[in-house]
Amino acid sequence: MNGGKLPTIRDVAARAGVSVMTVSRVANKQSWVSPATRAKVEKAIAELNYAPNATARALAGGDRRVALLYRSSTTSAYLGELLLGGMDEAARRHFHLVVEQCESGVPVEEVMARIVQARLSGVVMPPPLCDWDELIEALARQGVPAVMMAPDRVHTGLPVVAIDDGQAASDMTRHLIELGHRRIAFIRGNPRHRSSDRRLEGYRRTMAAQGLEVSEDYIVEGDFSYRSGLEAAERLLDLAVLPTAIFACNDDMAAAAITIAHQRQISVPAELSVCGFDDTPLAGAIWPALTTVRQPIRDMSRAAMTLLAGAIRGPGGESEGQALARLDYQIIRRQSDAVPPLHQERG
What is the Cα–Cα distance from 161 to 154, expressed in whole angstroms? Predict the structure, then answer.
C-alpha cells in the first residue's frame, strides 16, 4: 500500500501495464483475456495485495449485498428500529442486508478490509459513524457508495437522511413551557453524537427565547443508555431545588428517569413531568407511557436504503436530485407530562 491507503484497480493496471478494464475482467474471472495478460494482472494483484472494488464485484456477480454499520454503544431499541426499516426495504429491493459492528479505536484499514471481503455494494452509516471522516474517505477511495443518517454535516456528494433534531427539541421544550413548567432539566446523550448537541441547542435556544434562565445543574450528562439515565436522574433529583420537568435526549434515559422518580415516590406526572426522544417501542410499554418526540427511525432506515439503491446505480439512479431526505417528526403526547403543581413552580 502507498501511505497506508488501500490499493486501487488503477494501481494494479499501472503495475501490470494494462487497462483498468482488463484488470476488471481478470478480477471477475471473465474468459476473454489472454493467458499471458492474465498472469501479469494476477501477479500485480498478489504483489499489491489488492482486493477488487466491492461494488464492481458485487454487481458483476449479481450479489447485491449492503451493510448497516453500527457501534456497540447504539441502544438496542434504536438499533432494532433501524434493522426493521432496513430489512423491510432491503428485501423489497432484493438486497442482502449485512449488519456490521464498527468500534471506536479500530483502525479504518481493518474496517475497510472487512467491507471489501464482504463484497458489499454499499453501506448505511447511522450516528456516530456517519461523522467518521477517515472511514468515509476510505469508502470513497474504494468506490463503495454510502448513505449518512443524521450526520454532523453534509459530506459533498453523499446522500443524507435526517430530521431537524434542534427544532424537534425546541418544540418539545416549548410544549413543556406552555404547560407551565419553568424549571426544566435536560439529560444529554452521547457527546460523540452530534444529534445530542443539536437537541441541547434546541432546548437552550427555546428556554432563552422564553426568558428562562437555565441552571447548569439542570443539564446533566448521559450517553443514551438506560444506566446513564439512572445516574443522571439521581443527580437531578438530589438537587436542593428540584426540576418540575425532565427532558431526556432519548427514550431509554427518559424511562430511567421515571424509574428513579418511582423509587423516590415522586409521582409522574403529578409532581414531575418526563419527556423523551425517538418514540421507540419502550415509550409505549412503560408506566406512565412516555410523551416523546417521534423520530421516524424505521422510515429513515427505509429512506437510506432507497438512496443507497440510487447511489449504487450511479448517475441517473433514483437518488439523483434526492441527496437529502429530511423526514418529519411529531410530538407524541402520552401520560408522562402534565401541568406542574403550583406550589412546586413557585418553590
Answer: 10
